[in-house]
Amino acid sequence: MGWSFKVHGGVAAGLGAVLMVLAGLTWLPGTLLLIEEGGLLALIVVLLFPILMAAAVRLLLARADKAQVWQALRCLPGKVQAGLAVLVLSGMAMMFLSMGREGNLQSAEVRDGKYFAFDTTARGTVELSRERYQAVLEADQRSMLTIPGVVLVGAACAVLAAGELRRADRGVAPSR
């Protein structure tokens, strides 16, 4: 596999891991000040789309079906497979655990000193207590960090599989 595939996959997996660690920090009491500023969300968007688009292009250029991509992922070194699996599974676990908590409430906000959130069952905003507002805010932050984190790890899997397919097409022995 070429060095550009390794760098691209490593950057995507590393950024995904950082986002999932930040998402895990939302389980601690209080809110993450980084997220409230809005700069982190812009940075996530700016980094996510080029990495994801480049991964999709690399996978499309490999011209492989799902079975070949799966086989290529299985040809990766065991530590890489384990690391990617841990990242994907932890991200999915965080997503499912946070969905069950505040279920129908999202988009917490403060207006005129009162706390509100959008209730998906009532299709409107409802007033909340401060404690409930904090819980909804943390759930929003968690999903805002976990979803792009899982997508970045998926992009890393796609890039590394494409690199492994390219290596196999050239007939080069795997580097372990």
Structure report:
- The structure is a single chain.
- By secondary structure, the protein is mostly helical.
- The chain is built from 6 helices and 3 strands, in the order H-H-H-H-H-E-E-E-H.
- The protein has helices at 3-25, 33-37, 39-62, 66-74, 78-102, 130-170, and strands at 105-111, 114-119, 124-128.
- Strands 1-2-3 form a 3-stranded antiparallel sheet, with helices on one face.
- Strand 1 and strand 2 (114-119) form a beta hairpin.
- Helix 1 packs parallel to helix 5 (78-102), helix 4 (66-74) packs across helix 6 (130-170) and helix 5 packs antiparallel against helix 6 (130-170).
- The radius of gyration is 19 Å and the shape is elongated.
- The termini are close together.
- The model has no long low-confidence stretch (mean pLDDT 83).
SSE layout and pairings?
Blueprint: H1 3-25, H2 33-37, H3 39-62, H4 66-74, H5 78-102, E1 105-111, E2 114-119, E3 124-128, H6 130-170
Antiparallel strand pairs: 1-2, 2-3
